[in-house]
Amino acid sequence: MIDSACQAVRRALEDGGDLVGGARLHLEACPSCRAHAAVLVTLDRLRVGEADSETVQRVMAALPPAPWRHRRLAAWLPIAAGLALFGLGLGLLGGIPAPGAVAALPGALGSLAGWLGSSLLDAVAAARGGAEAVRALLAVEGLSLVLWLLLTAAGSGLAVRALVRRRAEVRR
Amino acid sequence: MVEDDAVVLARVLAGDEDAFAALVRRYEPRLRLYVTHIVGVAEEARDLVQEAFIRVWRNLDQYDPRYRFSTWLFRIAHNLAIDHVRRRRQIMISLDLGENDEGEAMRLDPADERRDPLGNFENRELARALSREISDLAPAYRELVILRHLVGLSYNEIAELKRLPLGTVKNKLFRAHSVLRVALASYLGSAGGRQDGVASEPE
């Protein structure tokens, strides 16, 4: 077993610090700690140098074109596109809008929202009308007509698909 | 004067792509030594190291500067080497980098004396014994000794690379040094022969 003084001295040696005072005296008096220091000195001489120029050239020649250049460019593209659109908008407006035009902007946005709302209501009404038409057809025993329409659509689809496949095979 | 890795990386990303050569020059031999330790075959290690540099190059803009560049590079090389070994389905952990006629096994490149880690040892007997004793260490100790003394990573770099607490790295290296002290006692003087320190260190 090593004593606490040996432990402290060896820890200090491992950490690469200079030994002073009692630690230095202990090292001089303790053969085992001197051997520990000798091992560390010996191991510190094991260093690999730098690569030769031939090796460096071989590795450098194997490097592909720097892909991160494109990635960095791509990162800027959305900003560039936004700026371009902003510029285009300014160009179409004939420059920075006058304060009066800017003041009219909330009203214009309100009109746009109204138009979108009425369009949505129209779409809902159209869907409801279509559903009512199908129900009326079924009520007058038009089920066979609906089935005939569906089968015709499916058959036509299959025929078109077969034609496209055959054409692709001929091309290959 | 050696430029800091971060400075070199900044130059590369700013458009000076040739500056990357400084990093290759700095790390290639150490990386090759480490990868050879994992895959066991020097020629395969050479190709894997080249692949590691290519991967680093491809993802240079994604490097996280919170970590050391060396840690990132060595981890990429480590993963490549481990994948390679798995593909081969043959785990070879060896320090044998091409043994010469005198039985010295740690040479990185047998054709190049400058790249021999033992090249500056005048005492060839000590060099051979050191090579042998490091090879004979338990794998967990051997890898840390290689990373610390051959690859030249700091304790902090090893802790980051191996994802181990700093204290564990220090303790394991302490134990490894104690084992080497006992094993190399006859080369370093009789002082190292006491069987102490190896088992008494807390984990």
Brief characterization of the structure:
The complex is a heterodimer of chains A (172) and B (203). Chain A has 172 residues and is mostly helical. Helices cover 81% and strands 0% of the residues of chain A.
Model description:
The complex is a heterodimer of chains A (172) and B (203). Chain A is mostly helical. Among the domains of chain A are: 4-44, no CATH class; 141-172. In chain A, 81% of the residues lie in helices and 0% in strands. Chain A contains eight helices and no strands. Chain A has helices at residues 4-14, 21-29, 31-44, 53-62, 67-93, 99-103, 105-139, 143-171. In chain A, helix 1 crosses helix 2 and helix 1 packs parallel to helix 3. The longest helix of chain A has 35 residues, at 105-139. Chain A starts with a helix and ends with a helix. Chain B is mainly alpha-helical and 203 residues long. Among the domains of chain B are: 5-88, Orthogonal Bundle (Rna Polymerase Sigma Factor, Chain: A), CATH 1.10.1740; 137-193, Arc Repressor Mutant, subunit A. The chains are: A mainly alpha (172), B mainly alpha (203).
